[in-house]
Amino acid sequence: MTAVPERPREPDLTNALARVREVTEAHVVRTDREAAFPVEALDEMRRTGLLGLLVPVEYGGLGGTVRDLVVAAQSLSRGDMSVGMIFAMHCQQTAAVVRYADDRLRKELLPRIAAGEVYLASVTTEAGKGGHLLTARARLAGTADRLEIDRFAPIVTGGAYADGFLITMRGPGDAADTDVSLVYADREQVEVTGSGDWDPMGMRASHSVPLRLAGSVPGHHVVGAPGRFREIAGTVFGPLAHVGWSAVWLGTAAGALSRVLGLLRSPAGRERFDLGSELLLTRLSRARQRLDTVHALLAHTVEVVESGEDLSRPSRQLLLNSLKITASEECLAAVDGLVEAVGLRHGYLKDSPTRLELALRDLRSAALNYSNDRLHLADGRLALLDRGVTFA
Ligand SMILES: Cc1cc2nc3c(=O)[nH]c(=O)nc-3n(C[C@H](O)[C@H](O)[C@H](O)COP(=O)(O)OP(=O)(O)OC[C@H]3O[C@@H](n4cnc5c(N)ncnc54)[C@H](O)[C@@H]3O)c2cc1C
Q1: What atom in ligand 1 is closest to the CA of residue 203?
Q2: What are 191-237's pLDDT values in tens digits?
């Protein structure tokens, strides 16, 4: 764990975000080039209290809402999608602890998250079952009081730097592969062995390395009822993933568009580009239209999630999945269109201040990050259940 400097927490979300963005900006080129985790940005999230955004005030957190998460994830991603994703995924894990951990674990863990001591990583993907969220292969062994973990995790964002892990496993006991439990392990409770490199096309600074986690945790570290991860997935993991990721992708594309507009309107840009060109204007319009579409869908979905209604209804599941699929496609398409709009020098070269090249590579991961194909299959089944075609 990185040491937490002793400075007062910054309670003002806008200031905290500005500080993290400033630090991100200073390191983004290097972290992408070296595929290095943005340690400096994470440290700033610790210092400012941002890691405790979703921790209730009674545990020392900022007591933020899903709407706050969306604002923060978008803002951070304008500078660097990896930083935004690291933050959004940590918040998704935190929300699961807030809602489903028992009283003892909440009291032990939430104040530490709020103090910036614990950055949480997510371990759901598994060799053999791929991204499928609702099954698990590795079994929880041991007794009800002491659970043994031995889990290979092919891709863990920030895993080498995380202070704690939320891990899906099968069991405990003689369970079917659909009896999935969510278990919390502190870094000190597991031996974390790196088992490969991270050298991807994009999301390089997310440092999503393969790991093996082995150790044991007390029985009360099962989050929610044993074998009942499905409920957590339906109420917290799925909704916050789709809302949080979509905010990240929207922020990334909005940051890219904003930098392009800054270039076009600068004196150098006015010399280089014809701002009256109908082709250029149409391309800008298409990019903006795509982002406004995602923004509207995101805003509506946040309202539905915050309404407290039962999210398992087919129309609401369909909405959440539509958001993820649409955001992943439209944000990528918007940035791709901007590459066409500004051409080779500022659309394709790494050293352009537009950073379109980085945004494009990062956003290419969006459809893969829980495969859109899997969601379409689920949506087809859900559509069959909603014969009246009701909308959430
Ligand atoms: C940047 C990034 C960070 C990530 N961070 C984490 C993390 O921190 N923790 C974590 O656990 N995971 C993480 N993941 C993994 C992610 O959540 C997905 O599980 C993973 O990307 C899926 O990998 P896959 O495409 O190989 O697997 P699959 O989802 O298994 O898909 C493989 C291919 O087969 C197709 N396919 C397979 N089965 C089906 C099916 N039944 N129906 C339809 N199509 C199917 C898919 O379309 C896809 O083309 C991350 C992914 C990315 C891109």
Answers
A1: 1
A2: 999 978 999 999 999 999 999 999 999 999 999 999 999 999 999 99
Place of tokens 């969601």: 375
* Distance (Å) from CA 14 to ligand 1 centroid: 33
Mean pLDDT, the chain, as a whole number? Answer: 95
**Mind listing the pLDDT tens digit for each residue in 340-353?**
999 999 999 999 99
> Which atom of ligand 1 is the closest one to the Cα of 206?
1
Is 309 within 8 Å of 228 (Cβ atoms)?
Answer: no
Alpha carbon separation from 390 to 39, 315, 385 (Å, rounded):
45, 6, 10
211 lines ligand 1 (CB under 6 A): no
Minimal CA–CA distance to 206: which of 308, 294, 119, 326?
Answer: 119
Q: Calculate how far, in angstroms, residue 39's C-alpha sits from the geometric centre of ligand 1.
A: 25
Calculate how far, in angstroms, residue 369's C-alpha sits from the geometric centre of ligand 1: 6
Q: How far apart are CA 264 and CA 267, in angstroms?
A: 8
Number of the ligand 1 atom closest to the C-alpha atom of 123: 11
Short-list 250, 246, 259, 245, CA closest to 334: 250
- The answer, yes or no, to whether any atom of ligand 1 lies below 6 A from the CB of 181, is no
- Tokens matching residue 31: 């972290």
What pLDDT shows up at residue 130?
Answer: 74
Ordered by where they begin, the domains of the chain are 13-119 (1.10.540.10), 121-223 (2.40.110.10), 229-385 (1.20.140.10)
**What pTM was computed for the model?**
0.96
Q: Looking at ligand 1, which residue's alpha carbon is closest to its atom 53?
A: 369
User: SS3 for 330?
Assistant: helix
